[in-house]
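Hello support,

Our group uses your service weekly, and this is the first time we've seen a run hang past the timeout. The protein is Lmbe family protein. I'm not sure whether the cause is the sequence or the server load. Input pasted verbatim:
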Amino acid sequence: MELDILIFAAHPDDAELSMGGAIAKLTAGGYKVGLVDLSRGELGTRGTPELRLKEAEEASRILNLTLRENLGFNDGNLKYNEEHLHALIRKIREFRPKILFAPYFNDRHPDHIGVGNLVKEAFFFSGLPKIVTGQDAYRPGRLFYYMQTYEFKPSFIVDISETFETKMNAVRAYKSQFYNPDSNEPETFISQPNFLKFLEARAKVYGFKIGKDYGEPFFCEEEIEFDIVQLIK
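Update from on-call engineer: The timeout came from a worker crash unrelated to the input. Re-ran successfully.
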């Protein structure tokens, strides 16, 4: 199956938190969006891997993803090695997306950094015919990075005003991970009561920067063409 968009994430819920609004906007526009999580998040303080997979299924339904897969790599060890690199190359060649998304390569969580760097390598090497996987070589048109904990100066901001609530519904599908007054599990960085308020505040800040209610920021290492005619229209 060929996709328009392929997103790589270290753990279930990473993509929803970072670009759930953009995903919902793309799927509402009829684009085929796939998401590949590299781990089951088994080192997470709250919940279980089995529960998080069920939560990911619900979030995928809310976002109307074309497909979602989990590579089952070891949480806490998502960094460069040949197995990881070739697995990502195979996925890129299998789905042949026009655009690739990855975690920004500087973040609080080492796994996010590792996956960002892995995707950058896979993005390039998937286009080399001499790397043999039994598939045709293929390189997507662009690689964009999404924001997790650490901020960056965006290359562009996507207006998610119409899909912000869909994003938050997808985030709330991960009931084990976020604030629950009835939970007896230890508190984490993202289970604090104010974390979801922070998520909304960040979306409002980036929305304000483009004159919209809500926005999600993205970064590209390459220059992006700007069509000034479309802006005038």
